[in-house]
Specification:
With about 1050 residues, this protein is mainly α. Helix content is about 60%, strand content about 5%.
């Protein structure tokens, strides 16, 4: 073993020397070209980056940009090419075609290739380019016709035939397929499409199952032999191999199901659909897989029926519609219609609507519904009773889908009056009662009615509005949707709670400007009574994890003035804690330890104590605990002891100075570890506290939201790190029951309930980013972490390891270059630069000139491997864009260098300290002028594209998703902003603004809501015409990099770093 270590050490020494020699003897430009030719695109980009750092004149830069454009054209990074193009003043025709192909504009690229082919009919490169355009556009018939008309030399058949065989199996031309296989001159093992074509030819010849499975195994072996080191260095590099393996597994399952039962075949179709969804936003890969699945099933009839194949055609149609390939989508719908699938009518109507033929789309859908088309027997099939029930369920769902689509279109087109529209929305839940979408949209319609009445004068509002009947209808339909699924959980549950709690609080209050008549009060009480009778039934039926997702909002309202409402709130809390005690009790700790400084706080503590007493005396055994109900008593007692000790650790200790210091948990903070550990509560980290929601196919009641193997707190280590910031937060280390250590930051003198709600909000945004195909493809995200308030002044924050502040990184890099910061001199220059436009150069030249951008150096030092360097830089750029947009919408300020961090392992951007929300930065003595942090260092670290390309595109995608999800996000934010326990006007918050020179301006909840809504809609301050997503992003970037705005920032923000 020792000899092996020495041999390895010697080898790596030789490699290190060789690399240093190569870099010394060869220019970065030469290395970039060599690596590109060798297929190492990441290495080529890395060397090109070094060239960029050394070259600044126009000619060299233009050549470098063109070189980078060639590199980006050959890698799977969708935005880099666009970023490079933005820096080229004029694009030549080849560069334009490159951009068209990268953006999926195949028709434009096809036209150019056809023009080129007229001039150079024998040019193989042009011919292959045209065939690729036709393939990507789904024009397989045209592709085959083009190949038939080509004069192909037999020597180039091996390059043409892979296109031909794929088009043949997609269009079902099996005789042509055999001909094309015979014309292929190359090695069969070298081309995957040819291997698949031979398999399909065997299927067409009715070969046995064993023969087919042997063929699949042989193809898999050929794929495995191509798994070289360079082909598997990263997920991106291995993409094609993974796609081939996916295809072979699908084919294996399809072939093996030839003799299976109908029920097994239905399960297979569901499995194939779920596997396809895993691929995400790779639409061309999905179309490729669907084409292969259809071909296999067509050749295996009668084992697979028309409806199986038509379902795959409709999946292709939906994909094509989403990518605006309407011709391809119409073609797929036509195939599904020919197979007798009535669902094709819905997809056809959607295509008409997408193509702006709104009236025809509505007529087509209305006609199909009136003819009862979706409820007719499918194709005269003879089915078993169980299958018939399943088919009836399928037909009801189709009918309900058509009815809801019609209601939404009539609503959007404004083509029907209110009562008729209400009837249209009521039809889908009646047709198919267990479909959550039908209930959700009916509730959404009533919410729209409710919101239309809110701004009216009291005399103009309807009696149904004043009585609370409309609010009740919203709540009831939203609750019904939750019983059938969780897709709309975050749109519905916060709104249910807000409307219900407000309805209970207002039941005895007169409307503004109107007396409360006895008859109206009776109607209000009747509506509330009806709602409570409904809720009593559904609180029992809904699983506890549904309510767990909104537990902080529920616990915050236990001081509610209405006794009937309070009774049901207590019932919900008890149900959640009994079902998920190890997780849910963390939300109750804040009530256990609350200071009674106000009557509201006193009421909340008193009622919290009553709830805990009820839990202790309850007869029901808590879920996940081994013994009797006494275990829950012990758990509550353990939670109380732990919270007491954590509060002691928060407040104890006398620490001074501006440096982090080590301390003892037991001696300095007087924390009694033996008194409170081991504790059966889970370690308060995000992975333990977040409930998982059921997938669409799972039964909602059987779902387990938390793993049975939870990690609880075993003990605390004695070493504590006291940080240098003013509040002296302390980093504790807990040892979990799994033996691992978990770091937690306990923070005194700060109300973390706002941070907790903001993390919940960011979690909702993350779900939206994952669901969107384009953002999912780019892996856009916000890094979140657990926040657990201990009371209104202290709390726990999950410590995220491996992060470092941007300020610390930059200061280290400048120190290594002997560059120091004279804050006094810089402040004077910045103040002088703000006086007149002519003096702005004092900032751009004198200040920024002292601090050349150095952040790119950190990425190169931190990620020496070119592939990981490129991935880290992309992650940095994209995560920076996401948080920049979300922060802008929320009015997040105070983004100085210590509140923006980088993840040392991945390059991702990580934000902390969310105290300065809702545009509070505008109230500072030096109001914040920039919407987010985008200094010259941050731009330089994004590479030669700067904020063009990945940053701009990721910003546009994020802002677009925020607009699409406006209703959901505003529901969450309004519950947060109007929460009486999270007073936005607290003096403590105002004093923080004052500490930065502000006037301590108090925020009004309604003005905060209105401001956020304006931003989401794209309205700039004092403007009445909204900007497009692209226009808003462009304006925000301009504001963020404008030297006039940067020079006007306060000195502590460090706009020069």
């Amino acid at each position: 073993m020792e000899d092996m270590r020495r041999f390895c050490h010697a080898v790596f020494q030789c490699l290190d020397y060789a690399m240093r020699w190569l870099h010394a003897k060869r220019s970065s430009s030469q290395l970039s070209k060599a690596e590109s030719k060798a297929g190492s695109k990441a290495e080529a980009k890395s060397h090109a980056q070094k060239v960029e750092q050394g070259k600044r004149d126009g000619g060299d830069r233009a050549r470098l940009l063109q070189r980078l454009q060639d590199i980006y054209a050959n890698i799977d990074e969708p935005d880099g090419l666009e970023g490079i193009s933005a820096h080229l003043q004029v694009l030549d025709i080849n560069q334009q075609i490159l951009s068209h192909k990268k953006a999926g504009r195949w028709a434009a690229a096809q036209s150019w290739y056809e023009m080129q082919l007229a001039e150079k009919p024998n040019d193989l490169t042009v011919q292959l380019g045209l065939l690729n355009c036709l393939k990507q556009a789904g024009q397989h018939d045209v592709l085959l016709n083009h190949i038939d008309g080509m004069r192909i030399d037999s020597s180039v058949d091996s390059k043409i035939m892979p296109f031909a065989v794929e088009a043949a199996w997609v269009t079902g031309r099996w005789d042509n397929l055999a001909t094309f296989i015979g014309r292929f001159q190359g090695s069969f093992a070298q081309d995957f499409n040819i291997l698949l074509a031979r398999l399909f030819d065997s299927l067409h010849k009715k070969c046995g199952e064993d023969t087919l499975l042997d063929s699949i195994r042989e193809i898999r072996e050929a794929v495995a032999s191509s798994m070289t080191t360079s082909a598997t260095i990263s997920l991106q590099a291995a993409h094609d191999i993974m796609l081939k393996c996916h295809v072979l597994t699908d084919l294996e399952m399809i072939v093996s199901s030839r003799s299976s039962t109908e029920d097994d075949r239905n399960k297979l179709m569901v499995l194939l659909h779920d596997r396809l969804e895993v691929i995400g936003a790779y639409f061309s890969d999905k179309q490729y897989i669907l084409g292969i699945q259809r071909a296999a099933m067509e050749l295996m009839r009668p084992a697979y029926m028309d409806l199986d194949v038509s379902g795959l055609w409709l999946a292709s149609a939906r994909l094509a519609r989403k990518t605006n390939s309407l011709h391809q989508s119409f073609n797929a719908v036509l195939h599904a219609s020919q197979l007798g699938d009535d669902a094709a009518t819905i997809e056809n109507a959607k295509l008409l609507w997408r193509d702006s033929h709104h009236r025809q789309a509505i007529q087509m859908l209305q006609g199909a519904i009136e003819l009862n088309k979706f409820m007719s027997q499918q194709g005269g099939l003879t089915l078993s009773e169980g299958s018939l029930t399943k088919l009836n369920s399928h037909q009801k769902l189709l009918t309900a889908r058509a009815q809801l689509l019609l209601a939404k279109w009539l609503d959007a087109a404004g083509q029907t009056h209110a009562s008729a529209l209400r009837e249209k929305y009521q039809q889908p839940p009646k047709t198919f009662a267990s479909w959550e979408k039908g209930h959700y949209y009916l509730g959404r319609y009533y919410k729209k009615v409710l919101e239309s009445e809110q701004p009216l004068k009291a005399d103009d509002q309807s009696d149904a509005y004043h009585a609370g009947e409309i609010a009740r209808l919203v709540i009831e339909n939203y609750v019904r949707s939750l019983l059938s699924g969780t897709k709309y959980l975050y749109q519905t549950l916060p709104r249910i709670l807000t409307l219900w709690l407000d309805m209970g609080a207002q039941v005895n209050k007169a409307p503004d400007g109107k007396a409360l008549l006895p008859a109206m009060q009776r109607r209000r009480l009747e509506q509330l009574s009806l709602l409570h009778a409904f809720l009593d039934k559904y609180i029992l039926r809904l699983p506890a994890y549904i309510f767990y997702t909104a537990l902080p909002q529920i616990v915050a309202r236990i001081a509610h003035p209405n006794a009937d409402v309070l009774e049901r709130l207590v019932h919900i809390i008890v149900k959640v804690v009994e079902t998920h005690p190890r997780q849910a009790l963390w939300s109750m700790i804040g009530v256990m330890t609350m200071a009674t400084t106000t009557k509201q706080a006193s009421d909340r503590k008193e009622r919290g104590t009553e709830i805990l007493k009820k839990l202790r005396n309850g007869s029901k055994k808590a879920d996940g605990l081994s013994g009797s109900p006494a275990d829950l008593k012990q758990l509550i007692r353990a939670g109380e002891r732990l919270s007491e000790q954590l509060l002691l650790a928060c407040h104890n200790g006398d620490f001074h100075g501006n440096k982090a210091v080590q301390a003892s948990l037991t001696k300095d903070l007087r924390f009694n570890d033996k008194r409170c550990t081991p504790c059966p509560l889970v370690v308060p980290v995000e992975s333990s506290l977040t409930a998982t929601l059921p997938a669409a196919s799972e039964h909602i009641k059987k779902h387990r939201a938390f793993s049975s193997d939870v990690v609880t707190i075993d003990s605390f280590l004695d070493e504590v790190l006291v940080l240098s910031s003013l509040a002296k937060p302390r980093r504790l280390t807990a040892r979990g029951s799994d033996g691992k250590t978990y770091m937690l930051l306990i923070k005194p003198k700060d109300d973390l309930r706002t941070d907790q709600r903001l993390m919940e909000f960011n979690g909702i945004i993350n779900r939206a980013l994952k669901r969107d195909a384009e953002s999912g493809k780019r892996q856009l995200y916000i890094r979140t972490y657990a926040v657990v308030p201990l009371n209104e002044e202290c709390g726990i924050i999950e410590w995220v390891p491996g992060i470092r502040t941007i300020r610390d990184i930059l200061l280290s890099l400048y120190a290594s270059q002997k560059i120091s910061i004279d804050y006094h001199a810089i402040k004077a220059l910045m103040e002088a630069a703000c006086t007149t436009e002519a003096k702005l150069g004092l900032f751009t030249k004198d200040v920024l000139g002292r601090f050349p951008p150095v952040l790119p150096m950190w990425f190169m030092e931190q990620f020496p491997n070119p592939s990981t360097w490129f991935g880290a830089r992309l992650k940095y750029t994209r995560s920076c864009a996401v948080m920049s947009m979300v922060g802008t919408i929320l009015g997040l300020g105070d983004r100085h260098g210590e509140n923006v961090n980088l993840e040392e392992g991945s390059g991702g951007v990580f934000h902390v300290d969310f105290n300065c929300l809702f545009d509070k930065g505008l109230t500072f003595a030096k109001p914040e002028r920039v919407p987010f942090r985008l200094t010259h260092n941050m731009v330089a670290a994004m590479g030669i594209c700067g904020y063009e390309g990945p940053f701009r595109k990721s910003s546009e995608l994020t802002l677009s998703i925020l607009r699409q999800q406006e209703e959901t996000l505003m529901t969450i934010l309004e519950a947060f902003i109007y929460d009486p326990t999270l007073d936005l006007q607290k003096e403590k918050r105002a004093s923080k603004a004052a500490s930065k020179g502000g006037a301590g301006v108090k925020l009004q909840p309604q003005s905060v809501v209105d401001s956020i809504k304006r931003k989401v809609k794209g309205l700039l301050p004092h403007e009445s015409i909204p900007l497009s997503v692209e226009g808003q992003v462009d304006e925000l970037i301009k504001q963020a990099v404008d030297p006039r705005n940067l020079a006007a920032m306060y000195i502590g923000w460090c706009p020069f770093l």
